[in-house]
Write a structure and sequence with these properties.
The structure holds two protein chains of two kinds. Helices cover about 0% and strands about 55% of the residues of chain A. Chain A is mainly beta. In chain A, the strands form two sheets. In chain A, strands 2, 4, 5, 6, 9, 10 and 11 form a seven-stranded mixed beta sheet that branches. Chain A has a four-stranded antiparallel beta sheet with strand order 1-3-8-7, with no helix packed on it. Chain A is globular. The N and C termini of chain A lie far apart (about 40 Å). Chain B is about 0% helix and about 50% strand. In chain B, strands 2, 4, 5, 6, 9, 10 and 11 form a seven-stranded mixed beta sheet that branches. Chain B starts with a strand and ends with a strand. Classes of the chains: A mainly beta, B mainly beta. The interface between A and B is medium-sized, with 22 and 23 residues.
Chain lengths: ~120, ~110
């Protein structure tokens, strides 16, 4: 069955970095675009970044552009999110999600919490 | 950026009642609108994609309609497991955006 499992969350200070991973299994990872979506505590959903199936095309929300980098390792079925220059407002649960041919996101991970606090 | 406005913010209904949730876009999204359900402590779950297509495993009591800027998610007869927060999301333009959510709560 399709599984997405996020890793890498934790507590970090403002201005530092964190790298999130999403391990995919149960499907042919290299055939699917993928996304990161976050949810601040008690708030709604916010799309963060997306990447095409082959890693060539990358898209970012304005709030993270220039600070976050999405990438993928198709040989290891892993989605990555490098988060630099972190701010308190980046504190959120980060979900990875599978893109179904550009229509919607049909599978989601359970999320990993990143907390940015001094 | 396309802004999605959901209404009402909270819908208080009893099991068996009909729920009608609205999502309005600040500009045309054509039919590229999806709905997600989220329960406390859980990841979102896809309910409807491209305005009116039910996702795999979603009950027929869920239906979606609309076009251009105005969209509706209807739950024909609420079951206990349907009480949750529902988000609309557009994929017409980058950046992809979500609405603020409608909480469907038990009256």
């Amino acid at each position: 069955q399709v599984q997405l499992v996020e890793f890498g969350g934790g507590v970090v200070q403002p201005g530092t970095s964190l790298r999130l991973s999403c391990a995919a299994s149960g499907f042919t990872f290299r055939n699917y675009a993928m996304h990161w979506v976050r949810q601040a505590p008690g708030k709604g959903l916010e799309w963060v970044a997306g990447i095409g199936y082959d890693g060539r095309n990358k898209y970012y929300a304005d709030t993270v552009k220039g600070r976050f980098t999405i990438s993928r390792d198709n040989s290891n079925s892993t989605l990555l999110l490098q988060m630099d220059s972190l701010r308190a407002e980046d504190t959120a649960v980060y979900y990875c999600a599978r893109d179904v041919s550009g229509t919607a996101w049909d599978y989601w991970g359970q999320g990993t919490l990143a907390t940015v606090s001094s | 950026e396309i802004v999605l406005t959901q209404s009402p913010a909270t819908l208080s209904l009893s099991p068996g009642e009909r729920a009608t949730l609205s999502c309005r876009a600040s500009q045309s999204v054509s039919h590229y609108l999806a709905w997600y359900q989220q329960k406390p402590g859980q990841a979102p779950r896809l309910v409807i994609y491209d305005t009116s297509n039910r996702a795999t495993g979603i009950s027929a009591r869920f239906s979606g309609s609309g076009s251009v800027t105005d969209f509706t998610l209807t739950i024909s007869s609420l079951e206990p497991e349907d009480f949750a927060i529902y988000y609309c999301q557009q994929r017409s333009n980058w950046p992809l955006t979500f609405g603020g959510g409608t909480k469907v709560e038990i009256k």
